[in-house]
Amino acid sequence: MTITTVTDVADPALVGHKFARLHRMRAAGFPVPDLVTVPANVFDAAWRDVDPGDGPDRWARAAAALRAAPVPDGILAEVRARFGSDAVFAVRACAVASTVDGKDGEDGADPFAGMSDSFLYVPADRVADRIAACWASAFTARAVAYRELRGLDPARTRIAVGVQLMVPGTRSFVAFTRDPRDGARRTVIAAAHGIGEGVVQEKADVDHFHVTGTTVTADLVRKERMVGPPAPGTDELALLPVPAGLADAPVLDDRTARAVAALAARAETFFGGPQDVEGTITADGTLHLVQARPMVMPAGPPVYWANHNITESYPGISGALTFSQAQEFYRRAFGDLYHRMGVPARTVDANRHHLEQLVAHLDGRIYYRLGAWHALHGQMPVFDLVRDVWQDGMGVTGEARPPVTRPRRRAWLALPGTLLRATRHPRQATNFLRWWDGVMADTGDLSGRTPHQLVAAYRELWAAMSVRWGVTLTNSIYGLLAVKALMRLLDRWADGAKGLLTGLLAGGPANRSLQSVRAAVALAELVAADPGLRAAVESGERPREVWHDISTGQHGTPLAEAAADYLRRYSDRALHDLKLEQSTPRQQPWTLLELLRPYITQGRTVEALLQAEQRAAHQAAEELAARCPGRLRRTVLRTLSRYVRFTARVREDTRFCRTQLYGLSRDILWRLGGDLHATGHLDDPLDIRDLTVAEVLGAYDGTLPCAALRDLAAARRRERLLAETRPGRPGLLRTPATGPLADTLPGAVAVTTVRAADAAGVLTGLGSAPGVVRAPARLVLDPSVPPETCRDAILVARETDPGWLFLMMAAKGLVVERGTLLSHTAITGRLLGVPTVVAVQGATSRIPEGALIELDGTAGTVRILAEVDPS
């Protein structure tokens, strides 16, 4: 059948997929403005009369001939008969598949999108001219070059033209039914004032809306430009200023954004796949759909990486030994966690591959792979109740926080079983600590063991922790649930007193980390009592000789016994003590003097530490009695507070156990490194820092695929040293899921989030230890700074770990960018009686060094008073 007039036929072979889709949608009741189509065989008839000849300008001659080609007389008559002579149109071209090369595919990969021209606000008397111009646009230089690039013959081009009523829209949008970045099930809408070309051609200021279910979030900009109709006598669309009253308001309100998302979802259902739709909104709020096409889906969801929470344990560059030990720890410990939280074994097995991916080694630095964490934690229904707190603590913000699509009812149904397990947790935690103390006592001195005995000891140790260490992780979940319950009850029963929460968490028995500090302070007091020894320690000279004199009793038996007892109990505690390439007092006991030096200089005493802890707890008890007069309610709050304090203490106790676990592992692996050096397999005993744990053990028990340890260590050492020359990456990254990570990591994108502006000079976070203090800021990015530099200052850091204790003790207050009420910084601040605020986003970049700041550990605020302390 030959058609030489306009048609409503939805046949892609005649009108192309773009117009066929519009005709189908209009017939199905979608709000598509009325249109007719000049089919491709009308173009074919015009093309048969064109002879472009040969030569480099043949396609330009073809375009000129088509621009002058007559449009069949009946077409304009049909357009006028249908729409009237006063109508205004959008006239658009669409490439139609030929029988030879095919194009304009229904799969969404339209290779000629944007290659043909479109014309808006076309009056009826110019429709014929614009149809011819659409035909001619098939032979523009860009269209011809693109076809030749794809190996297609430009002479086989076919064009259909759509003539559609213009809708006087005041706002326009493009909506994707899936997130175009990762294919996630959320609708992403770009909207601007004016007509759609402002969005499509990026000429207008665009707001973005993300719709998940009924939830709408927005990324807004100040709007100054919009695209409007052409000025009289010109074809160019006008770039107009946005009216002042609309500049700061969102283009779409939540109701309209949801309506656009619903319309796009309807198109997705209709066509059976994700869609990219364009539309406009008239002044009365009516939605009109002017185009729909299949989305080109990304290759896969992007991969998100974060190290906000893990850098406190593994700062800077980590060698292969440290990374492989971390990977082993996370795999085993979290496998036990999910078992203890009641996740069915079949579910755990189905997700076991994620346990291997919890941590990653990116440019020599250790990161979390967030997709693995979300998949594994998502196995626990109750996790949804603490997801937001967990993500805050992990530094997961913006687009890296996946939407929760599961019904919250699932989490509440799982809560009773979780609470039942929580009642058994204190006994389990106590048993765990008793078991671990037995392990440490039974291990004894490793110096007399053979390499094979050391390998066996390592494997037995880690096999035992695989079925016990989950207790330390369930502790965090129970603690977070208890904190959320306590916060809610305080809000109801104590007039929402924010500071009361931090006060109630102060006090209680000292945890093992703090006990190690007290032991170090007590040892420092003994050293300080001997003027000659004190001077020798403070000078930092001849540390090995000074330590020899102490350990052999030349400064008295009590000091020698106290030093030996400290090493027996706390020799694994040091700065960065989870990094296996770094020594601790277990390997080099004289380095203990470096730890004692700041305590001696500061003049700290155990009694002063105890008084600070008791003072904060007493003040909280008095405030609770004043704010909550009901005895029963106070009893509930105190009971819940004790449980939270218990989980906080267990968290620090088990962190200390982890330090000892790594300490034992370090001792074993360093001894094996010494043997590999002695037997000629390594150039230096510490070359094991560039081997994995499996490679070191495999050298003895037959699980090593190759024997060239020296070459392997050398190659890794070169990579590590090169990584140390490169600047660190941001704490939250996104990489595409395409190809090897080595290829995609160089183009990693930092993930940011839109943050509401704080009040002038005020930063907000989570108040974690009560009190108000005013002092100059001391920015610390590397804890190796002298402790004296933190004296009488407020310590500002990204995060801390137990190795920071001597700095924290010198400071008057603590401000960190990361953490929760149960993080190490918060717990230590409360136990030391030092006002503390955690989760202060961007603190290290927003607070200048030396600025006079006021920290309120109750309200969770940090106020910048002056750029530099005027005193």
UniProtKB/TrEMBL annotation:
This is PEP-utilizing enzyme. Pfam families: PEP-utilizers, PPDK_N. SUPFAM superfamilies: Glutathione synthetase ATP-binding domain-like, Phosphohistidine domain. It comes from the Bacteria. InterPro entries: ATP_grasp_subdomain_1 (IPR013815), PEP-util_enz_mobile_dom (IPR008279), PEP_Utilizing_Enz (IPR051549), Phosphohistidine_dom_sf (IPR036637), PPDK_AMP/ATP-bd (IPR002192). Residues 76-295 form the Pyruvate phosphate dikinase AMP/ATP-binding domain. Residues 792-860 form the PEP-utilising enzyme mobile domain.
